[in-house]
Amino acid sequence: MNTKIMLSLLLLLTCPFIHAKAPDLVGTWKTIDDKTGYARAEVLITKQENGAYRGTIIQVHAIPNRSAIDHCEKCKGALKNAPLIGLPILSGFKQNPKKTDEFIDGQVLDPLSGHVYQGKGRLNTRGNVLTLRGFIGTSLLGRTVSWIRVN
Question: Can you tell me the distance from the alpha carbon of 95 to that of 103, in angstroms, rounded to the nearest whole number?
Fold first, then answer.
């Protein structure tokens, strides 16, 4: 009898872990300007066939007392003067096999400066805040921003 109770208790305690879903970046994210605190844009992140994540701007928000930007004037190559709507700003991010809440080996485009940075990210435990770090060379030299999940 004691064994049945222990097995039942063990089953109840492990059920949430059996059905736990791995963190996923897919969805719409609101980017927050780290200097003003205002929402700057909404980015749709999708998962590609190769397992990498890609983020594209789907909406741009005006920031009070700042001139509106609707094209990537400082981007280089094919993206020079490309409209912000539809602009791919995240690419190549893959889930870290050792830490499923981390996403690594990506690239981040800053549409204000036109620079492309190496990137990594981490989802919080609830999956509604994505902390992204863009850097050159080492992640010690970079910038961190947080995005909020919209859906």
Answer: 4
Q: Kindly state the greatest CA–CA separation across the chain.
A: 73
**Helical residues (DSSP H) of 19-112, grouped into ranges:** none
| Average pLDDT estimate for 36-59 | 96
d(CA 94, CA 110): 19
In contact, 91 and 78? CB cutoff 8 Å: no
Task: Assign residue 42 a region (left: φ > 0; alpha: ψ between -120 and 50; beta: otherwise).
Answer: beta
Domains of the chain from N-terminus onward = 22-149 (2.40.128.520)
What's the pLDDT tens digit per position in 53-72?
Answer: 999 999 999 888 888 889 99
